[in-house]
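Translate structure to sequence.
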């Protein structure tokens, strides 16, 4: 069982049909499969073996697609990294995972040069136009490709439970955790979504999501390739262009995060001519909670109720509203996917009754293997085969067990579809010479769903640091989506008699 093999079999079936249209580049299914074979050959000749980890930090380009599937083809595991991660963040991921190869474009390799050279056993490869040499002994992937012709046949040396991907998620302690996903996890989820969303080879997917993210990579890209669909891929999300492309390319599916749909509606109000949406089948929303007014506004103007679904890095897609628009409800994330079970339980593990709020537990072939190198965290998250999601919700048994989410047991902030854990930002802010203590919370935001807000208390000896200076301090060290949009300065942070920080008071005071 290997996801790359499954997608290669689909490619042979639709050999001459366009698979991916990226800006002005058109690649048929045969083209994609041939490139994956060539990239796989290069990886094997570079010494990448079964069980190795290969990290990718690449802009949204076709090279990312070829490399991701090539890594799986040789039995290694992929680490897709956010293109905005700073060198110190990248160093942690590479070191923690023990990656043997880091593939990036020239800009990011140059930016991280000082940390890469300190990692023993790691080689780095320039992918895409290599430009001038930076004086380092970097592998030039384009040069390696020129030497191998059509490439060697792939043998896909993996079993279902073998590691396919490590996706790093922020940790509540500030240390990111590497969620280990197997080929069985990926294949089962792809198969279930194919059935549930009624994918066909007549679908045309408009892909506007990042490729390093679970949503854009596993759900959108893999889903489209598995179905034999055409994937129209934009490098960046541009609302006006999305509306134009749906009409001109007769798209049938769009996947986005709530922030994207908010911006699409804002653009809708400025359009001189309403686009023809008659080809569309599904507008799918995920990676963050969809507000009821967003659901209503989109349906009112376009005639399409958004299809909201629920997923997480550790389990891929978990639930989904039905394909039939009549079966979708605002604020509900729908029903479990085929082969997925969910429970809602109390703190003591007791199953909650209809309508009672508890923690959502998940079981199925989609549930991850655990956290890389963190057996204690794995045991905390997996109990008797059930994954503890950390999300709070309830089941409506009068409506077939439909799931509603009401909050998060953990302190996760979801901003623009990206996950942010406050502790990581708090640790960074408290490393600033002027900051005595910091608290980070998520505030409601019409555009991003939630925005990151920090409240800090300064040392009495260095009171002059400004909020803008602290924001800039974060921007220099963290990916942009993690950085506070606002910083407030206070004399002290509210705590209860036991010394526990009262973040609810901060939310009320600074909202």
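Result:
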């Amino acid at each position: 069982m290997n996801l790359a093999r499954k997608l290669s079999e689909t490619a042979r079936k639709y050999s001459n049909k366009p698979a991916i249209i990226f800006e002005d580049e058109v690649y048929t299914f045969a083209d994609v499969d041939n490139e994956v074979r060539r990239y796989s050959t290069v990886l094997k000749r570079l010494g990448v073996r079964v069980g190795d980890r290969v990290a990718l930090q690449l802009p949204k380009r076709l090279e990312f697609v070829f490399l991701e599937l090539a890594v799986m083809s040789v039995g290694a595991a992929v680490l897709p990294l956010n293109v905005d991660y700073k060198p110190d963040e990248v160093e942690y991921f590479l070191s923690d995972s023990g990656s043997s190869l880091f593939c990036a474009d020239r800009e990011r390799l140059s930016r991280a040069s000082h940390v890469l050279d300190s990692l023993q056993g790691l080689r780095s490869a320039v992918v895409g136009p290599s430009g001038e040499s930076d004086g380092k002994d970097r592998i030039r992937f384009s040069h390696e490709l020129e030497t191998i012709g059509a490439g060697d046949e792939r043998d896909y040396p993996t079993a279902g439970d073998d590691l396919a991907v490590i996706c790093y998620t922020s940790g509540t302690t500030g240390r990111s955790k590497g969620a280990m996903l197997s080929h069985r996890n990926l294949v089962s989820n792809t198969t279930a979504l194919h059935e549930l969303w009624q994918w066909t080879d007549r679908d045309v997917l408009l892909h506007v999501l990042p490729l390093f993210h679970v949503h854009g990579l596993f759900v959108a890209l893999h889903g489209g390739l598995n179905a034999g669909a055409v994937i129209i891929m934009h490098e960046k999300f541009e609302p006006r262009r999305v509306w134009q492309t749906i009409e001109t390319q007769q798209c049938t599916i769009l996947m986005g995060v709530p922030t994207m749909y908010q911006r699409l509606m804002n653009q809708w109000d400025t359009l001189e001519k309403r686009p023809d949406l008659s080809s569309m089948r599904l507008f799918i929303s995920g990676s963050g909670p969809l507000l009821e007014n967003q659901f209503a506004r989109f349906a009112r103007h376009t005639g399409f109720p958004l299809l909201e679904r629920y997923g997480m890095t550790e389990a891929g897609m978990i639930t989904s509203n039905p394909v039939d628009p009549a079966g979708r409800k605002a604020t509900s994330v729908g029903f479990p996917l085929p082969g997925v079970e969910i429970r809602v339980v109390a703190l003591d593990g007791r199953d909650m009754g209809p309508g009672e709020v508890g923690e959502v537990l998940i079981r199925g072939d989609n549930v991850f293997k655990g956290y890389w190198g963190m057996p204690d965290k794995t045991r905390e998250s997996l109990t008797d085969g059930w994954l503890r999601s950390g999300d709070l919700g309830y089941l409506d048994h009068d409506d077939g067990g439909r799931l509603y989410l009401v909050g998060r047991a953990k302190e996760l902030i979801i901003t623009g579809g990206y996950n942010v854990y406050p502790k990581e930002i708090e640790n960074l802010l408290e490393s600033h010479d002027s900051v005595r203590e910091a608290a980070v919370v998520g505030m409601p935001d019409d555009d991003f769903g939630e925005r990151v807000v920090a409240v800090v208390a300064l040392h009495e000896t260095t009171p002059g640091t400004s909020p803008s200076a602290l924001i800039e301090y974060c921007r220099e060290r963290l990916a942009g989506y993690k950085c506070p949009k606002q910083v407030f300065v206070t004399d002290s942070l509210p705590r209860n008699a036991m010394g526990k920080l009262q973040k609810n008071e901060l939310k009320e005071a600074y909202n």
